[in-house]
């Protein structure tokens, strides 16, 4: 009688900084399981193949407060044998565990933080990034605006650090692709109770006056990652102009209405499992989990060193319902990927746009390219 094949258990951790968030629109409040739901669907996909190879993938989720020390939660995870961790953390939190992960043979997959510094001066050889950077998002948007011949931009940005970082990415994109920012203005967060009826009406009434006096322009760009005012900009500007950035036409790693390139298949499976449409962070987590699964099944191993070597190989790629196989940039381990451009209901376009060429990969027209990088992997 043939003996049953021994089961090799592969443990993945999802380490997230979480606190309930509000948004200017109730439709934009992040789902409770954002990101985690994508990882769970991918675990099921991994196990569909893994069961034939004697591999079983499991997922453990651990949450910390957004400003908390994540080291104890990280140590707790690895004490139970978790060697692959999807990090949905701030840049500072992720960097606080990067060297600990390296010293313990743990591979980290950044599925949430868009900070360019994680791929540049703060880059690490043991962190793979499936979330795009702010510069990738800004470049994807800028390419479309230039393709449309909408070259004159006004930039309105928030007063918080993430807003300023995205504004910097938009400025860089303008310089890179031939856009002209003809005026800028900061919208300060004065602490108005903007999510009360009074606060909402106050900010809405401010918008026409706030956007008055700008020189003629084609598009008004918004950089408001912290959700202070951006949702209230479209249709309330002094001049009738399209809005783009964090409101209006928005760049993202995925769009819940995407049905191209087999997108309907993953959307339907995701909706059946979670009861909602797939968001960008869900796709980043799904992709990271599938990368681990693909490496494990191809190498017939659960050894992080073997899996890391497979992922870093020249011929590695992952299929992810985005029109082409995706690969990692060898200089900083950022996943190359197209950027979706859409509003709340439909995909308008995807970048890179036609005509933006590159000697190696057109996807490298999005974000910081190898000749520009400050990353030194160790």
From TrEMBL:
Q: Which residues cross the membrane?
A: none
Q: Which SUPFAM superfamilies match?
A: Periplasmic binding protein-like I
Tagged with keyword ATP-binding: no
Coiled-coil ranges (or none): none
Against Gene3D superfamilies, the record matches this protein to: 3.40.50.2300
Q: What are the alphabetically sorted keywords of the record?
A: Amino-acid transport, Plasmid, Signal, Transport
Residue ranges of every copy of the Leucine-binding protein domain listed in the record? 35-191
Query: Which family is this sequence assigned to?
Result: Belongs to the leucine-binding protein family.
NCBIfam families linked to this entry = PQQ_ABC_bind
This chain belongs to which protein, by name?
A: ABC transporter substrate-binding protein
Q: Which organism does this sequence originate in?
A: Ensifer adhaerens
